């Protein structure tokens, strides 16, 4: 890719970031750093949802190279190559629409990278000047490293032609980035408004254990859901609650969960058997029972604590919607809008469980100090 195209891409990332950065800079809020953190959370959530849309519309190879599109900074400049690829394979991965979907996803990702760089620079400068806890640069530095790793996996997603394990890790890293930003946002909120001493410490420690367990099971379920999506196994079971008319259908776990292989192929290079796709779908579907049990119990326990109740109510609502959209995706034969909502629901669960983990830890700290 030519240097001029790389410069144009970098400028596009800066342009995407300018609007949110300007809004934060001109805001009347005295704590602009905190505001920028929550803007980054919002945009990262949007990126995850749009990334799901990109994957679900089969646009991941809309531009089959990286970081540009056929070596160009945008699909306008690559229109000739895209049109030729579309004419050669009209139903293939490269079309004008898919190219734009893929590049918009990349532009948004670059914009978030610029915002995270702004967070790191601001935190470092202010920490050196003031030593205020709000500007401790550890988490912003971790975010910068994280977003660089995420960018590398974004590149490998394309260059390795949507290899399922790479795409799934890319999804998990996106959720991890959202969780880390949310944790930073929780810190900024806590430093502005510390809660009063409240609640029984033994009950709070029980909620903390549940919150940690919820984070683990949600992470596993997102990995399983990403594995379903990246292997195109969503409709391997096209009925609910049974699968292929049985509670336990015929399944091939060996090929279904062999991680290092090409899309649609076994490790030996043969076509992936349908029973492998059934195994992938069936495990994700049934692990959801454990997720509902753990997260539902967490929401119920946290609901009774004044500092946690608001997030607990949201968590319970999102959990119900997530369960319904998962069933509806199968029942209505994989409609795009519901599938995107299901992806968004997973991101919301990550955000809310992260906030509950942070809040219960801080409430315990306040109680110990009080």
UniProtKB/TrEMBL annotation:
Keywords from the UniProt entry: Cell membrane, Disulfide bond, Heme biosynthesis, Iron, Membrane, Metal-binding, Oxidoreductase, Transmembrane, Transmembrane helix
Major localization class: membrane
Pathway: Porphyrin-containing compound metabolism
Name of the protein described by the UniProt record: Cytochrome c oxidase subunit I
Recorded topology in the membrane: Multi-pass membrane protein
Entry superkingdom: Bacteria
Keyword Lipid metabolism: no
Cellular compartment(s): Membrane
Bilayer-crossing regions: 6-24, 36-56, 107-127, 139-159, 165-186, 207-228, 282-300, 312-332, 338-358
């Amino acid at each position: 890719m030519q240097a001029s195209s790389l410069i144009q891409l970098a400028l596009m990332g800066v342009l995407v970031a300018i609007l949110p950065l300007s809004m934060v800079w001109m805001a009347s809020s005295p704590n602009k750093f905190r505001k920028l953190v929550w803007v980054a959370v919002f945009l990262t959530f949007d990126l995850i949802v749009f990334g799901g849309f990109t994957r679900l519309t089969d646009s991941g190879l809309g531009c089959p190279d990286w970081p540009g599109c056929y070596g160009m900074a945008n699909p306008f400049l690559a229109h000739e190559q895209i049109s030729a690829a579309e004419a050669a394979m009209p139903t293939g991965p490269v079309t004008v629409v898919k190219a734009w979907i893929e590049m918009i996803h990349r532009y948004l990702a670059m914009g978030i990278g610029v915002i995270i760089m702004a967070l790191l620079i601001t935190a470092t400068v202010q920490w050196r000047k003031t030593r205020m806890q709000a500007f401790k640069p550890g988490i912003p530095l971790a975010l910068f490293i994280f977003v660089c790793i995420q960018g590398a996996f974004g590149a490998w997603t394309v260059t390795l032609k949507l290899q399922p394990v790479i795409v799934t890790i890319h999804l998990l890293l996106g959720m991890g980035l959202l969780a880390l930003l949310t944790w930073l946002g929780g810190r900024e909120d806590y430093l502005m408004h510390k809660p009063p001493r409240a609640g029984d410490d033994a009950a709070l420690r029980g909620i903390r254990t549940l919150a940690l367990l919820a984070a683990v099971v949600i992470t596993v379920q997102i990995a399983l859901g990403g594995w379903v999506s990246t292997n195109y196994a969503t409709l391997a079971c096209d009925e609910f609650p049974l699968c292929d008319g049985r509670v336990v259908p015929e399944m091939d776990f060996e090929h279904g969960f062999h991680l290092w292989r090409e899309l649609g192929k076994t490790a030996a290079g043969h076509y992936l058997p349908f029973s492998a796709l059934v195994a992938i779908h069936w495990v994700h579907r049934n692990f959801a029972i454990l997720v509902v049990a753990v997260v539902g119990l967490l929401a119920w326990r946290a609901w009774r604590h004044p500092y946690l109740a608001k997030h607990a109510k949201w968590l319970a609502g999102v959990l119900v919607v997530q369960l319904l959209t998962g069933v509806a995706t199968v029942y209505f034969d994989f409609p795009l809008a519901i599938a995107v909502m299901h992806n968004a629901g997973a991101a919301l669960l990550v955000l809310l469980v992260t906030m509950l983990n942070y809040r219960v830890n801080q409430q315990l700290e306040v109680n110990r100090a009080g």
